[in-house]
Amino acid sequence: MQGGTHPNIFGILIIPSQGHLSSMYNRVLITTDGSESNRDAVDSGLELASRFGSSVTALCVFDVGSYGNIAQTYGLGDEREYMIKACEGALKYVMEKGEEMGLEVTPKIIAGHPAETIIEESKNYDLVVCGTLGKTGMKRMLLGSVAEKVVRMSQCPVLVCRNPVEE
After folding, report:
1. Closest by CA position to 126, among listed 26, 14, 30, 15
2. Count of H-run helices and E-run strands, the chain
3. In this predicted model, what pLDDT tens digit does every residue of 3-31 receive, in sequence order?
4. For the residues of 104-154, what is the DSSP string, one character each?
């Protein structure tokens, strides 16, 4: 690796076995979209919060941009009702896993554009945890990357957990 970092490495987070950095991440924001691929990020974020004794907020951002397409396709009329159901479903895994680990997780649902909303919320936290599918090339260009935008613009450190997709 000359003059750069490996493209699949988003960062290194060292967790000391002794708690001298226990106050480093007091407030952890774990983002979720409810997908199976996001579970690695959720699990990592909860483990980290457990190790640091952090408070945890699980955030699901209802993507207002994609709702119109879904609503038209499936004939959905009540945006709020659909938003709440979809986000509650997305947050369910985080809440259950947190409870298993003895963590209190505060759920939060916000309507907005995912990257912008997470970036705005980041000012209230010491660490943001999010997942990425690791898309490359044209797929990444067309779809964009919420994680990439969050890493570039977050107001606190970001832990990105990659879950590669099979092409």
Report:
1. 26
2. 6, 5
3. 344 344 344 454 445 545 556 899 999 99
4. -EEEEEEEE-HHHHHHHHGGG-SEEEEEE----HHHHHHH--HHHHHHHH-
Burial class (CB in 10 A: 0-12, 13-18, 19+), 36: exposed
What CA–CA distance (Å, rounded) separates 31 from 41?
8
Instruction: Classify burial at 95, counting beta carbons within 10 Å of its beta carbon; exposed 0-12, middle 13-18, buried 19 or more.
Output: middle
Parallel, antiparallel or unpaired: strands 127-132 and 105-112: unpaired
Please state the pTM of the whole predicted model.
0.78
Question: What is residue 55's three-state secondary structure?
Answer: strand
- Contact yes or no for 108/138 (Cβ under 8 A): no
